[in-house]
Design goal:
With 231 residues, the chain is α/β, with parallel strands linked by helices. The protein has helices at 60-71, 78-87, 93-101, 108-120, 136-146, 160-168, 179-202, 215-226, and strands at residues 17-22, 25-30, 48-54, 74-77, 126-130, 152-157, 206-210. Helix 1 (60-71) crosses helix 8 and helix 4 (108-120) crosses helix 5. Bound molecules: adenosine-5'-triphosphate, ligand LCLUPRNS and magnesium ion (MG). Magnesium ion (MG) binds at residues 60-61, 77, 79, 131.
Amino acid sequence: MWRRVASVSHLFSHSKSTKFNQGGSTFKIWETITSESEIPTPSKGSPFITFVLGGPGSGKGTQCAKIVEAFGFTHISAGDLLRREIASGSAYGSVILSTIREGKIVPSQVTVQLIQKEMESSDNYKFLIDGFPRSEENRKAFEQTIGTEPDVVLFFDCPEQEMVKRVLNRNQGRVDDNIDTIKKRLEIFDELNWPVINYYSLRGKLNKINAVGTVDEIFEKVRPIFAPLSK
Ligand SMILES: Nc1ncnc2c1ncn2[C@@H]1O[C@H](COP(=O)(O)OP(=O)(O)OP(=O)(O)O)[C@@H](O)[C@H]1O
Ligand SMILES: Nc1ccn([C@H]2C[C@H](O)[C@@H](COP(=O)(O)O)O2)c(=O)n1
Ligand SMILES: [Mg+2]
């Protein structure tokens, strides 16, 4: 079983970045598609972790499916794990359900425990962790419990209007795919997710992807990030 206590160091040399202002501070987000030397070499002795960030409906799950197919990752969606927990009738189920209905974030210890179980029961060592971390609390809980940082962070950047349109058209029967809950999810995303994005930006791990376009067009922006990895 893998377990890594130190993070892999990254020697990034991005060529293009965007500056933006949030809460009075200026932050920089790397926009370059990473080159071969920027991805740490994965090894079967330790997990290779990609966090997949983006607002509700930005296309995280859709792109994860394509990354799995092309690069052999195991997809772990935090939202799917929580929905599975509700469906299983577990002790946490009702709390998770009401939290999701309100568009809020489930306590980190619950989510991290589910992710950890999923990682430990997998034979794979390449993981896409989708919809996580949603907050600094999530991020810190993961680092403390799993004992490592992600190797790559993807951020699907999508305008709010487009996200709302996609979520309302999703038609998967999700309890949170209604206009009232979407508004709350977007508010929570704005409040809690930006600090996480900024954190990874400052650590040179963030790959911002413009999530407007067709699924295939967007995947063509994702593909080069993982191109150095073989399936
Ligand atoms: N590039 C795209 N153009 C149009 N529709 C898209 C695109 N990518 C995904 N979709 C559709 O938008 C909806 C939301 O996509 P998806 O479930 O991948 O988003 P998500 O980021 O995982 O959302 P959530 O955080 O709510 O789980 C789905 O119905 C999906 O088919
Ligand atoms: N880290 C996470 C991920 C998800 N949730 C809850 C709250 C979300 O609105 C819901 C659905 O997640 P999605 O499928 O949109 O990624 O699950 C959370 O509390 N913490
Ligand atoms: Mg999703």
